[in-house]
Amino acid sequence: MELTVYLAGQIHDDWREQVQQKAKEKNLPLTFVAPQTNHGRSDDIGEDILGKQPGSVYKDDAASSVNNFRTQVLMQKSDVVIALFGEQYKQWNTAMDASAAITMNKPTIIIRPKVLIHPLKELSNKANVTVETVDQALEVLGYIFE
């Protein structure tokens, strides 16, 4: 059995590569998908497809529509969602993706540091499992295969 895992969360660092490398080291049969991690491509996709927009609000709206479509398709095809909340960046997209996963009844693991326990308490309560590290999230997934 192989699982597809959607990696929701910030796109400004290499946490996804860390997850993939650690999963490979553990020989976990996982395939990973994620939001568009090329920030420029994500911001410009609406205009790339629909053409020049009349202003920044319209540009953002066009990009958001295409990005949300992509996320929905990939998340629906996934078996599990891991949503990583970091401390450094605003986490609006992560919260939105985690909420969508929970609404779709996708098994959801939230990774969040101790400093975010209080602000994420309701979301953590709705997720299947909440952990503090990538390693813990992979241990949860590894337990499936025991």
List keywords for this structure.
6 helices; alpha/beta; single chain; five-stranded parallel beta sheet; Rossmann fold; 146 residues; globular
Characterise this structure.
By secondary structure, the protein is α/β, with parallel strands linked by helices. It has a single domain (3-36, 76-144), classed as Rossmann fold (3-Layer(aba) Sandwich). It contains six helices and five strands; from the N terminus they run βαβααβαβαβα. It has helices spanning 15-25, 39-50, 56-76, 92-103, 121-126, 134-144; strands spanning 3-9, 30-33, 80-84, 108-111, 129-131. A five-stranded parallel β-sheet has the order 2-1-3-4-5, sandwiched between helices. Helix 1 (15-25) links the parallel strand 1 (3-9) and strand 2 (30-33). The protein is globular, with a radius of gyration of 16 Å. It comes from Virgibacillus profundi. Pfam families: Nuc_deoxyri_tr3.
